[in-house]
Design brief:
Shape of chain B: globular
Order of helices and strands of chain A: EHHEHE
Strand order of the largest sheet of chain A: 2-1-3
Strand order of the largest sheet of chain B: 1-2-3
Largest sheet of chain B: 3 strands, antiparallel
Largest interface: A-B, 21 and 30 residues
Strand content of chain A: 15-25%
Distance between the termini of chain B: 25 Å
Number of helices of chain B: 5
Oligomer: heterodimer
Strand content of chain B: 5-15%
Structural class of chain B: mainly alpha
Amino acid sequence: MMAAPETETVVREDTALDAPWNVVVYDDPVNLMDYVTRVFQRVLGYDAAHARHLMLEVHEQGRSIVWTGQREKAELYTQQLQAHQLKTRLEKAA
Amino acid sequence: MKLELTLNGGLRIEPESDLEWDVLRCIGYDAVTHDLARQLGDGFDEPAGDWQEFVLPELEDTFSGQLQIVREAIEQAAKDDGHLDLLPEVADDWYGALNQARLAIEERYHFALGELLPDDAPERRSAYYRAQFYLDLQQLLLERVMR
């Protein structure tokens, strides 16, 4: 009689799926500051003061992390910001 | 060209000559040279494959749709009404088309780096004034028409 094959269960943690992602907006020479502020409010749901703060960060530092979180939602936000013609990238949070 | 706000929350544009209608038509001509959708994702890291497969076509559709709406509105108005009414429901499309045109002009001439020079070529001078006109229209739309 053959011994029943042993099944080994390996549990592996994959933290990559849960690792946060950053939505990063870059400065450009064309988009109007008020428009960028309005897009942050519209897409990300921020209040006017926070949206303006992020817009100024983009303008003065060349880029700003405007949202951090799950990849799926980060991808959606990236796509929506790009549809508003903002230069936007998705990157893994450090 | 006359610009005036309308009681229904829109912006009316009344070109007063064939040349001014042609200036409006230039929105489409300027923007069409610009591969904006691809540039927005330029340099994407890990999700590049997915982005090119799923997002890029949607962005291209969005941007070409904006240009189509603007082109059709201009041709229709030139033929029938003699004026264009930019209502709040199409203000985003107009703003987007104007932005595409300004991005394309900026990419070609780099006006953000400096103003016009006296000996600039007529083509460059013309592009500069078109970009200024598009910018003025965008500001009006943003401040007075867009919701």
